[in-house]
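ok so i was messing around last nite and threw this chain in just to see what happens. nothing serious, just curious
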Amino acid sequence: MERYSTVNNYVYTAIGLVVFYIGLKMFSGGMKSMGNIDHLQWFLGNPIYMFFGSIVMTLAWQSSSLSTTAIIALVASGVLPLPAAVAAVLGANIGTTGTIWLAGLLVSDGMPRGDTLRIAMIHTGVNLLMAISLLPFVNHIAKFVGRVG
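result:
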């Protein structure tokens, strides 16, 4: 009976990954088909707005993968300029730290304590340090990346 349960778990995991991948592909396709959305250009063209917006959206979705997929799809469709996309990725990295704080809250029955708190602080601190140090240079990063690809 134990072997059947283990195999069953692997099958469920594989099916879950396939469904997740298909969902991301559908989401990406839907974002690409949005085309030109002029009414959001004031937001999409501003790296600072995109930075904070991607923090909020990643916190809401609890998925930096989904946020990054949306960012890539918006860049591919020509709606999102590259500097704003770089800022959005930095924001998504901060937003994803919300997941560890949420997990810590649920596991610790309140504010995370001990090693859970330390891990959450390190994860958040490293992502904040990276964003603070790179955010002023998003235009330079976008120029460099634009030459590479």
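not much to say yet. The chain has a mean pLDDT of 82.
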